[in-house]
Amino acid sequence: MSTDRDELIELVWDGAVADRVKAGKDPRQVPVVRPKVEALADAILAAGYRKSRTLQSLAELVALAAESAVQTSDTSDTVVLKGGDGLFVNAFGGEVDAETLWRYGNKPFTVIYEPEAP
Length: 118
Description:
Elements lengths: L3 H19 L11 H13 L6 E3 L2 H6 L5 E3 L7 E4 L5 E2 L5 E2 L1 H7 L4 E5 L5
Antiparallel strand pairs: 1-6, 2-3, 2-6, 3-4, 4-5
Helix pairs in contact: 1-2
C-alpha cells in the first residue's frame, strides 16, 4: 500500500517527466533527480498538505465526528455540517440524516473538515 508521500512523489515525478516529453525531450534523458523530487514531496507534506479523504460508504459518513464538514460532488458543491445530534445541516438550515444524504447526495463525498481528536 502506498503512502501519501509515495503518491505525492509519483505525481511530482510524472509531472516533471510529462513536461519534458511535451517539450519534445527523450523521457530517458530527463534531468530530474529522484532525490530532489523526494525532497520536494517532503517539503509539501511538512507545509501541511494532506490529500482530501473521500467517503466510500454510508458507514464512513455515519462514523464522522460531530462538526465535520462534507462536500458533495454535485453542480452546487453542497457543503453539509454534521451536528451533535447526527443530522447534517446545509447552508440554508435544512437537516437530513446520514442515510438520506447518502441515498440522494451526489457521490463521492469529500471530507473538507474534521475536528481534531481530543
